Amino acid sequence: MFNALTKLSEKSPSETVDQKFNLSLLDSYFNSSDNSGAWINEYLIAALRDTGRLAKPLIMAMDWHDEMYYGSLDAEGIIGTKNSRGTNYAYEYCSASVVIKGIRFVIAVIPVEQRNILEMVSSLLDTITAHGIRIRLLLFDGGFYSIDLIRHLVAGRMEFIMHSPKLKRQCGDNETDRIHTTGSHSRRKDQQATFRLVSVYGRNRKGRILYTFATNTDLQPKDVLRMFKKRWGIETGYKMIRKFLAKTTSKRRNIRLLYFYLAVLLYNLWVLMNIISRVRIIADVMKALVSASLIRTNPIVTALIPSNSQSGGDF
User: Fold this and answer.
1) Residues contacting 72, CB < 8 A, separation 6+
2) C-beta of residue 79 within 8 angstroms of C-beta of residue 63
3) Relative to the CA of 7, which of 16, 52, 141, 173 has its CA 20 to 30 Å away?
4) Which residues pair with 84 in a beta bridge?
5) Which CATH number covers residue 97?
6) pLDDT of residue 15 exceeding 50
7) How are beta strands 160-163 and 135-140 bridged, if at all?
8) Which residues contact 113 (CB under 8 A, 6 or more apart)?
C-alpha cells in the first residue's frame, strides 16, 4: 500500500504540489483500471478479488458524501447542498461501493461539479465494469431519483432499487405495488419512465414509516425493503472514512480532493486488513500507524508539510 502511495510522487522534484496533484491525475489514480498496477485502488481491489469476494455478481450501492464547507464562497469546487451544521455548501463526492455481508468496500469515487445524475452514475458504472466486477443489483438513495437514470437502467436491463420519497404522494399512506409511468410536464410521453412502484411499511429510528421505491426487480415488497436496507451500511462506512480524513482549511480543491481520496483508500485498506487478518484492526490504531508511516516515508506528505509553514497555513 505504501509503495502504491509513493507512486503518486514519481514526478520530477522540481514540479510544484499543484502540478503534481491536478484533478485529472488524482481522479485517474483512484478510478483508473489500467493494468500497469500504478493505480492505488487497483491494488486493493485485486487483493479483495484474491479473497474470492468479487467472484459472483454483487450488490452495488451509490451514495453522496458531503464535506461541509464554512468559508468564503469563492472557493473552487463547492456546491450548494442540503443545510447541515449551519451551512448550505459542501465539497461533494459520489461513490460506488460493493455491498457484501459485513463488508462495504469503495470501488470508485468522483467529485461532484454539477448534479448530472445520469452522467455521474454512468461514470461510476464504467469504472465498475472496467474492474471486471459484475453487478447483481444497484441500490440508490432518494438523492439519485432521476427519470433519465431510471430510463437508462431499464433500457440496460440493470436491476435497481431506488428509494423515492418524491413518489410518496402517488401512494398516500397505503402500501402499493403497481406499474407506474411518470407524468413530468416538461417531457413528451415517449420521454417518461415506466417502472414498478412499491411502497411498504417498515421501521427506522423514528418508528413505523412508509418507504417508497422505484424498482424493476420482481422481489416481494418486504424483500425490496430488506434488500435496500443493505445500503445503510454505506452510511456507516462513510463515518469510518471520515476517521481517516485529514482536516484542512484550504480552499484549494485539488488538496481537498487529495485528502478525500487518501481517506477512502485508507478506509479500503482497513476493510481489507480486517478481511484477511485473524485479529480485528481498530481504525483509530491503524490511523495513527499509517500517519506515522506516511510522514516518515511518503514524499506526498513530506512535500506538503514544508509548504504548510511557507503558505501561511494553506493546508
Assistant:
1) 251
2) no
3) 52
4) 87
5) 3.90.350
6) no
7) parallel
8) 77, 79
Do 158 and 131 form a contact (C-beta atoms < 8 A)?
Answer: no
Nine-digit cell string for 32:
483508473
Given the C-alpha cell 468559508, which residue does it identify?
A: 71
Residue 24 inside a domain? The answer is yes
How many independent structural domains does the chain possess? 1
**Residue 17 pLDDT:** 39
d(CA 186, CA 201): 32
In a domain, 315, yes or no: no
Residue position matching grid coordinates 418486504:
222
Instruction: Quote the CA–CA distance of 197 and 212 in Å, as a whole number.
Output: 7
**313 within domain boundaries:** no
d(CA 50, CA 52) in angstroms, rounded, equals: 5
Task: Decide if 81 contacts 121 (C-beta within 8 A).
Answer: no
Would you call 50 helix, strand, or coil by DSSP? helix
**Residue in 252, 302, 291, 250 with CA at minimum distance from that of residue 9:** 302
Q: How many angstroms separate the CA atoms of 186 and 87, rounded?
A: 32
Exposure string of 233-249, with b = 16+ CB inside 10 Å and e = fewer, is bbeebbeebeebbbebe
**Cβ atoms < 10 Å from Cβ of 37:** 11
Per-residue pLDDT at 262: 87
CA–CA distance, 256 with 127 (Å, rounded to integer) = 22
Q: Which residues contact 36 (CB under 8 A, 6 or more apart)?
A: none
Residue 16 lies in a domain: yes
3-state secondary structure 138-163: EEECHHHCCHHHHHHHHHCCCCEEEE
pTM value is: 0.81
138-159 pLDDT, tens digit each: 999 989 999 999 999 999 999 9
Name the residue type at position 254.
N
